[in-house]
Predict the structure.
Amino acid sequence: MIIVMKPGAARADIERVVERVHKAGLQTHLSAGEDRTVIGVIGHNPYSVKDAFTHDASVADVIRITKPYKLSGREFRPRDTIVELPFGIRIGGGGVAVMAGPCSVENEAMLIETANAVRDAGGHILRGGAFKPRTSPYAFQGLGRAGLAHLARAREVTGLPVITEVMTPSEVECVSDAADVVQIGARNMQNFDLLREVGRQPKPVMLKRGLSSTIEEWLLSAEYILAQGNYNVLLCERGIRTFDTATRNTLDIAAVPLLRELTHLPIVVDPSHATGKWSLVAATARAAVAAGADAVMVEVHPRPDEALSDGPQSLTPANFAALVPQLAAVAEAVGRRLLPPVAAPATATAS
Ligand code: PEP
Ligand code: MN
């Protein structure tokens, strides 16, 4: 349920309404728009206070939200959420951001080599997994905390903010300290303890769609994070399981405009995990931007044939450099624009 305050309602009016809701044992989440504040009422039975404001002159309306997800829906927050990252990077609100980097952080030298190539080609955010959710327990599991240190170094050298995955609640703190965006992988989309934990830390969270998840399940998972007070959530479509095994997954491109209707949260598309094949990545990345994605995330490796994970779907730096201007052209064709390139830090020396 949402309580829509009248335009120009005073702070004291809002506080009075909030207090009344809390007295009923319910939680509130405020969305302050340009002219009016919306109070989201969350709890087991929000309708217990539905008639509590019929005589309150500062309340414009009390509206039932029929969707099971509340805070992530457009009814609660009609305007697009813009997630602000360091170095002036904003995801959502019209610009298109490019995240790129290796599947796994393999060592510091390869990470910095890749990061420099990503930055020089116009990428905005460096990706790289330190904690890796591998299907096989015998596959490379990632460098863990050492990988986080390499990411911190790459960030310093290149001036790119970094995104990396966290797999367990006990590691949220160290990942949050190192990362600009904390990633929840597809396999953990419904790890509710983990979702609650990243909802309680301050960094934005990118929530990947589960391997076989419906849009509603996905938005309910986002809701776990928002309900803890972290509203900076990005949704990443990375392909889903279908009957067809010709590609690693099936990219649900319609999810992009559908999410745009249903939610205010920024939308990211990962064509690398969606296709599993590098030769399909450029076309699906262009499609993602054409469909309205706020960002794309692609895997880039300086020597894909030697990659410790996901080499077959990784672009070379040259392929990535060719893709960025294509994404810029598509963005422009649909009335958007690629974010400006990130400047190298003044102190950075060639590496
Ligand atoms: C990743 O982005 O590193 C990853 C493991 O992807 P997903 O969770 O989408 O499989
Ligand atoms: Mn990967």
Notes: The chain has a mean pLDDT of 96. The pocket of manganese (II) ion (ligand 2) is lined by residues 103, 273, 299, 309-310 (CB under 6 Å). The chain has ten helices and 15 strands. The radius of gyration is 21 Å.
